[in-house]
Q: What sequence folds into this?
């Protein structure tokens, strides 16, 4: 009888590490995919937050704009106007008294000249709106009076016509980075 030949071969001499290299490359690819997905998720979260911030600022500016228009609409007589240089609160600015474009004024100007108008008779102003970094404000400027009678009717006091006002509102979102400025032209017959 002959001794049986061993069926076992030493494999250590024939291994070259191909599985190790392949698994390391696969692990590297999965890591890159994971990091990319995390960055995309973080970017989408930021975009959603910014979108919410802009939406909040827009809604607050719209509320301030409508409150200022409501202020003009509720007045029984033509409001007394003042210039931008006047001390104290100025609910309606005289035509041409604001230097430059109202919408392009800086934050300091809005803090000094902007007004918070009540949203309705007997209701608090927009100062109580939650989630905003600043109180939304508005500025009302008199644009002028336009006669609708053509100016040919004599002896009519006061002349028939409409007063035009430019209403500009400004608000920031919750972070203070989003700034929305809205503007409308409001007309009223007194």
A:
């Amino acid at each position: 009888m002959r001794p049986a030949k061993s069926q076992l071969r030493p494999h250590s001499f024939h291994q070259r590490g191909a599985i190790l290299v392949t698994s390391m490359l696969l692990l590297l690819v999965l890591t890159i995919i994971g990091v990319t997905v995390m960055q995309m998720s973080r970017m989408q979260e930021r975009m959603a937050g910014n979108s919410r911030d802009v939406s909040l600022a827009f809604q607050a500016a719209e509320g301030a704009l409508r409150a200022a228009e409501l202020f003009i609409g509720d007045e029984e007589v033509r409001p007394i106007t003042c210039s931008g240089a006047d001390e104290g609160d100025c609910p309606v600015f005289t035509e041409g008294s604001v230097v430059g474009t109202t919408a392009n004024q800086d934050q300091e100007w809005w803090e000094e000249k902007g007004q918070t108008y009540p949203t309705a008779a007997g209701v608090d102003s927009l100062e109580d709106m939650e989630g905003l970094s600043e109180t939304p404000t508005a500025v009302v400027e008199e644009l002028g009076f336009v006669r609708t009678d053509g100016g040919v009717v004599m002896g009519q006091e006061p002349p028939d016509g409409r007063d035009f006002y430019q209403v500009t509102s400004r608000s920031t979102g919750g972070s203070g980075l989003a700034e929305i400025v809205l503007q409308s032209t409001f007309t009223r017959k007194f």
The mean pLDDT is 80. The chain is about 35% helix and 15% strand.
